[in-house]
């Protein structure tokens, strides 16, 4: 992260916050550049321009452009303008409900749907003889039960997120 003539304490704060978002995002499979962009915008008390984001993170224009597109699409960032003629300023959307709802609808639902098919295939292809196959069939059946219970929570989570 580039400091330039900026206050070192501010830069250190930004670095820590960007690292926090990058680590959290890695658990969800979100690209580091996307997480870093969100982190740097989140760390700024004022909206940032495309160029400011690029400068502070020292990443390519293409990465900034792609990351901003993703973050706007999922509702994590919003584009704002000031009273001046400047446009293209970005600030975090502090309503995390929309971001979480999008994550549930896109990633979790997709993973859930894929997992159901995979578990059904696994149940049909259990290897082994005698009691070994039965043990494995019971384990896969247990996974299918857990999977079904998790799937039942998705509509509840979506409804809950729309209430607030």
Task: Report on this structure.
The chain has about 160 residues and is mainly alpha-helical. It has two domains: about 10-90, Winged helix-like DNA-binding domain superfamily/Winged helix DNA-binding domain (Arc Repressor Mutant, subunit A, Orthogonal Bundle), CATH 1.10.10; about 95-164. Helix content is about 70%, strand content about 5%. It has six helices and three strands; from the N terminus they run H-H-E-H-H-E-E-H-H. The chain has helices at about 10-30, 30-40, 50-55, 60-75, 95-125, 130-164; strands at about 50, 75-80, 90. A hairpin with an 8-residue loop joins strand 2 (about 75-80) and strand 3 (about 90). It comes from Lacunisphaera limnophila. GO terms for molecular function: DNA binding.
Secondary structure layout:
Blueprint: H1 8-28, H2 32-42, E1 48-49, H3 50-57, H4 61-73, E2 77-80, E3 89-92, H5 96-124, H6 131-163
Antiparallel strand pairs: 1-3, 2-3
Helix pairs in contact: 1-2, 2-4, 5-6
Q: What is shown here, in short?
A:
It comes from Lacunisphaera limnophila. The mean pLDDT is 84.
């Amino acid at each position: 992260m580039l400091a330039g003539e900026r206050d070192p304490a501010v830069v250190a704060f930004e670095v820590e916050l960007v690292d926090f978002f990058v680590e959290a995002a890695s658990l969800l499979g979100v690209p580091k550049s996307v997480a870093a962009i969100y982190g740097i915008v989140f760390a700024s008390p004022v909206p940032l321009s495309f160029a400011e984001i690029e400068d502070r993170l020292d990443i390519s224009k293409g990465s900034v452009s792609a990351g901003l597109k993703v973050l706007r699409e999922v509702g994590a960032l919003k584009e704002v303008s000031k009273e001046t003629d400047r446009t293209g300023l970005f600030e975090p959307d502090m309503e995390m409900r929309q971001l979480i709802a999008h994550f549930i609808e896109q990633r979790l639902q997709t993973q859930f749907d894929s997992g159901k098919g995979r578990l059904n295939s696994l149940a049909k292809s259990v290897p082994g003889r005698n009691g070994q196959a039965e043990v494995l069939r019971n384990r896969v059946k247990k996974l299918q039960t857990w999977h079904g219970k998790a799937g039942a929570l998705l509509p509840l989570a979506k409804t809950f997120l729309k209430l607030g």
